Amino acid sequence: MQEQDVDSIGQEAINEEGKTTVDEAIALIVNSNPELKAYWDNTIDEEYEGSYEENRQDLIDIITVVDYIIEKFRSDDTSDLSAIFANIEEAFQNPSTDAKELIVTGILEGLQNGCDMEQLDFRNGFDKWLGAKSKRAWDGLIYLHDSNDPYEVKAERIKTFID
């Protein structure tokens, strides 16, 4: 049984080769513009005080990007959102499993939750910036939130939105 587990882990590593990693996705997204990069760097420096690599928590850290986007959206200072969402879309084209989770759960779902809490229009408010793959995942998250379908139906249907 242990050999099978090792083999499946090895196969997963092979399947992940050539895919966008979490580090690559974060770098691509936070480097979308100098202001976002500075905001990211300052937040990471304050949070980790020099121990980022040892203690990082990517799904929590990425909320920095979400907060930045929500603030820009709320203040109607949206000139940089096209570049940010273009880079999110680029990172989402061939992501590793972890990078996909970072984008879907960390960024897209984080944006929807943050906007919902602040009563901002997330259902249609970001449509002009979302790329095709991001928009499909975005709509899938809205479906999960709004649908009264049974869990089994949701679990199967969400695959069509995210894969």
UniProtKB/TrEMBL annotation:
Pfam families: DUF7674. It comes from the Bacteria. Residues 27-140 form the DUF7674 domain. This is DUF7674 domain-containing protein. It comes from Acetobacteroides hydrogenigenes.
